[in-house]
């Protein structure tokens, strides 16, 4: 495994903070990707590259 990916709602500050603390970086924004409550919200694409374990 070399790459981990996830998405997070842009206003989820706790989740975003945790993922950044764990080494994930924002790669992009998916505008109006979800309809929550009565409004559209954005999602961030995040990824983390990990070093492969030598065999």
Descriptive report:
The protein has 55 residues and is of the alpha+beta class. It contains 1 helix and 3 strands. Strands 1-3-2 form a 3-stranded antiparallel β-sheet, covered by helices on one side. The longest helix is centred in the N-terminal third of the chain and has 9 residues. The chain is elongated and about 50 Å long. The mean pLDDT is 94.
Overall pLDDT metric: 94
Structural class: alpha+beta
Query: Helix and strand succession?
Result: EHEE
List low-confidence stretches.
none
Q: What's the topology here?
A:
Elements: E1 3-9, H1 13-21, E2 25-36, E3 39-49
Antiparallel strand pairs: 1-3, 2-3
Summarize the structure.
This protein is of the alpha+beta class. The protein is built from one helix and three strands; from the N terminus they run E-H-E-E.
């Amino acid at each position: 495994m070399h790459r981990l990916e996830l998405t997070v709602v842009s206003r989820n500050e706790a989740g975003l903070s945790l993922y950044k603390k764990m080494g994930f970086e924002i790669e992009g924004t998916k505008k109006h990707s979800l309809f929550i409550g009565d409004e559209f919200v954005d999602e961030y694409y995040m990824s983390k590259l990990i070093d492969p374990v030598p065999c």
